[in-house]
Structures are given as structure tokens and as C-alpha cells.
């Protein structure tokens, strides 16, 4: 690879690192081209799966400010650059790795923080953003309903108290 080609490849990798919400490093040794195509399809629109040379990736990652990836860049490495929902992409990688054990998740980076393989798996175990937002909305609605019921109970209790007091006075002959 000529020096100009390497500089272009580093610049492209650097821009991918900077423009992505997360990057997940994997080892793809033993996977066929058809399996890699299937993996790219399963990741969908929010992730780009690219094979890159380790030395060029190290340079690009360091230039982009991700210095903790050097230990992960050994062996054949492919990177999933995630532009959308990070949890969805992590689930796609985890599920593909379960079906194809030759894909090994090495680790990655999320919001400038280096993650190991177990942290990527924990991220994949999270529910999707939509489900979490729905649960939050449900919890907020339940709290509002409870507050409304409490506020509605105050006049009702006051009316019952006044009625009981009136009934007691009538009994006493007042």
C-alpha cells in the first residue's frame, strides 16, 4: 500500500471514529464473505462494518482521541462504526456472534470510554431506547395519576366529614 493510500485510509478511519456514536472491534477470522455480508445486513442502517489494518486503525484512533484501543488491535480486526442506536447494534453483533462463534467481540469505545467485551454484552442486554422511554412515560403517568387521585380525594373526604358532622349534630338535636 503506497504512502498516499495509507494516509487516505487513516483519514477515512479517523473521520469514522469521530463521526460515530460508538465503535465495536471484532475478530472475524474464519468467517466467509457471505457471512460478513450477512453480518453487515443484520447491523442495518445504523452501523457500518469495515475491515481495517491494525496499524492504520491505531494511528486513526489515536488521532481521533481514542488511545485505549491499542491492546484490542491484534489479529484480524473489523470495526463496527455505530451511527444510530448503540444498543441495537450491540444486540446485532451479539446475536450474530452466538450464531457464528468465529466472530469474536473484542471491545470498543462509547462516548470516549473504552469498553471490553463483557461491557459490550451488557450493553446488548439493555432494552431498546423506545422500550426504555415507554417505561419512563408509564412510570411518570402512574405518578401523575396517583397525585391526581390524592388531590381528588381531598374534597371527597371533606364532604364526607362534613356530612358525618351534620348527621352527628342532628342526632344530638342541635
UniProtKB/TrEMBL annotation:
GO cellular component: ribosome
UniProt entry keywords in alphabetical sequence: Ribonucleoprotein, Ribosomal protein, RNA-binding, rRNA-binding
One Pfam family recorded for the sequence: Ribosomal_L10
Superkingdom of this protein's organism: Bacteria
InterPro entries for this protein: Ribosomal_uL10 (IPR001790), Ribosomal_uL10-like_sf (IPR043141), Ribosomal_uL10_bac (IPR022973), Ribosomal_uL10_bac_type (IPR047865), Ribosomal_uL10_CS_bac (IPR002363)
Subunit structure: Part of the ribosomal stalk of the 50S ribosomal subunit. The N-terminus interacts with L11 and the large rRNA to form the base of the stalk. The C-terminus forms an elongated spine to which L12 dimers bind in a sequential fashion forming a multimeric L10(L12)X complex.
Functional description taken from the UniProt entry: Forms part of the ribosomal stalk, playing a central role in the interaction of the ribosome with GTP-bound translation factors.
Assigned protein family: Belongs to the universal ribosomal protein uL10 family.
Name assigned to this protein: Large ribosomal subunit protein uL10
Organism field: Nonomuraea corallina
Organism lineage string: Bacteria, Bacillati, Actinomycetota, Actinomycetes, Streptosporangiales
Amino acid at each position: 500500500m503506497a504512502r498516499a493510500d495509507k494516509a487516505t485510509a487513516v483519514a477515512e478511519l479517523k473521520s469514522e471514529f469521530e463521526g460515530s456514536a460508538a465503535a465495536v472491534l471484532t475478530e472475524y477470522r474464519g468467517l466467509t464473505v457471505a457471512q460478513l455480508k450477512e453480518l453487515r445486513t443484520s447491523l442495518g442502517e445504523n452501523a457500518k462494518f469495515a475491515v481495517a489494518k491494525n496499524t492504520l486503525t491505531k494511528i486513526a484512533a489515536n488521532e481521533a482521541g481514542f488511545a485505549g484501543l491499542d491492546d484490542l488491535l491484534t489479529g484480524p480486526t473489523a470495526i463496527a462504526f455505530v451511527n444510530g442506536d448503540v444498543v441495537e447494534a450491540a444486540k446485532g453483533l451479539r446475536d450474530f456472534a452466538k450464531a457464528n462463534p468465529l466472530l469474536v467481540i473484542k471491545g470498543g469505545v462509547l462516548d470516549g470510554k473504552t469498553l471490553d467485551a463483557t461491557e459490550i454484552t451488557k450493553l446488548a442486554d439493555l432494552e431498546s431506547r423506545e422500550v426504555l422511554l415507554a417505561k419512563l412515560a408509564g412510570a411518570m403517568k402512574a405518578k401523575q395519576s396517583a397525585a391526581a387521585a390524592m388531590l381528588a380525594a381531598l374534597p371527597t373526604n371533606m364532604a364526607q366529614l362534613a356530612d358525618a358532622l351534620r348527621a352527628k349534630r342532628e342526632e344530638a338535636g342541635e
